[in-house]
Write the structure tokens for this entry.
Amino acid sequence: MLDPALNFARVTPSLVAAGVTTVNLASGEGAELPQPSADGAFNLVWWNFSDYKVASDDPNKEIVRVTARSTDQLTVTRAQEGTADTDKNIAGKIYKMGLAYTKKLNDDLKKYVPGLEENKTISSATTTDLGSIASALVEITGVVTITSFGIADDGVIKFVKFDNALVLTHHATSLILPDGVNITTVAGDSATFVSLGGGNWKCLSYQTKKASNAKLAAGVDDSDFTTVAGIVHLLGNLTSAVATYFTSTRTAKTTPVDADSIMLCDSADSDKDKKMTIANLQEQFLAMVARLTASANLYLNLSGEDSVVQITSYTKKKEVRVNKNGSIRITFEGKYSSTGVVGGYGRIYINGIAVGTEREFTTTDYVETASQDFNVGSGDLVQLYLRAKSTEYGTTTYAQNFKIYCDESNVDTIQTLNA
């Protein structure tokens, strides 16, 4: 990646004559340049800054290649990119070296960055020298078998398109191909190759223009998948092939039994394939669609008598569990007995929370409360709580005939926990 601090750095070298290859920089300026041992060699423009503020104006400008750097000392190769090796030691003059956009940099960028250069064409050969192509986009013509892509810097990437059928020969070191096997190209196929240095290359990806019959279900042909018509053709044939497979190799069963199973994809377990028996499926289906509906039909009656004596806080006396969603209607009978204080109370709770209207009993004979409807969910606990009106001796509240009214065909819908 280009770095503004490095790619446009400018440093001040010592005065040296032509032919000198060791150049000292002003103290601390070496750190402004790349390190060849880590980043690779690079080119600098060297010119008379005192007389020419712009390097291109100096007729004696020179491009040198920096091959080593030790703190503020450079080792250079003189006269690069067609420039001349000249003296840089006029007394009283200041010279500068700068990283600049030279032809070498331009060529390097074209090698590494797709789009900076139009695609280039090269004929296939036993050694098809991709490293010699100054573009990241390469089109290979011809039908000669390829065993090598030649020598290129480590990290160079080439995006390759093949114009004809040819063979790419896998090699475990010099030409590493997917799955370690040879590839026979088809016109229009494309691939991405990276240089590992030393003449070694690796295929990062390979994309075929057309699919192979051997890789698809029977009935799917080599349609051109780059067009809408081709894709529609593929999907149509593939659907037909799948349908044919299941209808021809699977026997239909019209009367499944509870022990039979069907396949499902478990989203809670990394989409693993699981199975569910017909009995499981039936149970889950009924749980989803079966609902309780409050009605005038008596579903359950807990007739036993319960009481609380001199307890003025609500105390649970009856409880049932509902195993379906929906609504239910509840009534119960209540009365009190006391030597002094008149009255007692009852109330419906769901899951320990008071939800019903508080009912007051003002007679010593049982009286049925007005009915009240409640919405319930599967697993809810429906409860009857009682409390006395006073802690006075003998004050007692009674209840019986705790009745639930609803429509539901499943006899296991409501489970008695405390009658």
User: Anything to note?
Assistant: The CA atoms of residues 319 and 383 lie 4 Å apart. The two ends are 79 Å apart (CA to CA). Residues 1-6, 211-226 have pLDDT under 50 and may be disordered. The helical segments are 4-7, 36-39, 103-112, 228-249, 278-289.
